[in-house]
Amino acid sequence: MGFVLRRTGFYPRGPDGSVDLVAQRLEQAQGDRVARVLGKRPLELDERFGQWGGLALGSAIFGAVHTLNFLGPGADPKQALIAVPVIAVLGSTLGLAFIKTGYHLETSVAMHFWYDFLLSTADFIVDPQHQPFVVQYGAAF
Predict the structure, then answer these.
(1) H/E run at residue 47
(2) CA dist 72 to 24, 113, 131, Å?
(3) What is the C-alpha separation between 134 and 19, in angstroms, rounded?
(4) Taking Cα atoms as reference points, which of 81, 78, 110 lies closest to residue 93?
(5) Cα separations in angstroms, 43 against 36, 57, 62, 124
(6) N- or C-end of the chain: fewer Cβ atoms within 10 A?
(7) 117 Cβ contact list (under 8 Å, min separation 6)
(8) What is the pLDDT of residue 9?
(9) Which residues of the chain have pLDDT under 50?
């Protein structure tokens, strides 16, 4: 696996030597900051710190960014002491999937979606009354 240098950045090559069109399109999406961060930043970390160093640093950044989930009103910051390391491990799993699929985001994004979906579903099952999407109404009979 190699990289090809384009005018706008590095694009990973697939096993057949072709340029990853998803990464290229993500890079070209000028207004989409999330795509640039998700697609380009991990490659920059790999280039600077090596594959495993980039994975470790990217996982730590992933966990640190998710501390914001525990800073809102009514949130318990002490929960972050337990949750952030777990989220960092999830970040390393997503990063490993990103590496093992030839630097394609689809698998990592799908894994993140299903993780969030299952976590939200479990949270709803445990406490259905205190969810942001629950609508309660009553009718007089």
Answers:
(1) helix 33-65
(2) 36, 22, 15
(3) 45
(4) 110
(5) 11, 12, 15, 36
(6) C
(7) none
(8) 43
(9) 1-12, 29-32, 36
